[in-house]
Structure prediction request, 102 residues.
Amino acid sequence: MLALNVEGINYFKKKIKAPLVGIFATVEPIAIKEFKTAGYQMVIGSLVSLYMAGRGLVDGMKALKETGDWNRVQDKMINDEEFFNIVGLHGYKELYDRYNIC
Prediction:
């Protein structure tokens, strides 16, 4: 069911007596806090993080093109430790040790 405004999410909360999951997207411009206020158990937005990453990539590449120097765009990048945490690199070392991989 599609709710395009706060009244819609409140309507579904009243009519459906079950746990509800809200979806936020550009077609449904409802703030996450509105779903929380209405009592939804979960809110997901599958494309939001991808769109944010895309914007970051485009902005970073523009800056790199303008400066021609990756050292001058460090503020647009995550550092090694952040990257390792995101991909779970430290967990792989444990697996390598456990299973005697290389």
Q: What stands out?
A: The CA atoms of residues 19 and 88 lie 32 Å apart. The helical segments are 6-15, 32-38, 48-67, 80-87, 89-98. The chain has a mean pLDDT of 90.
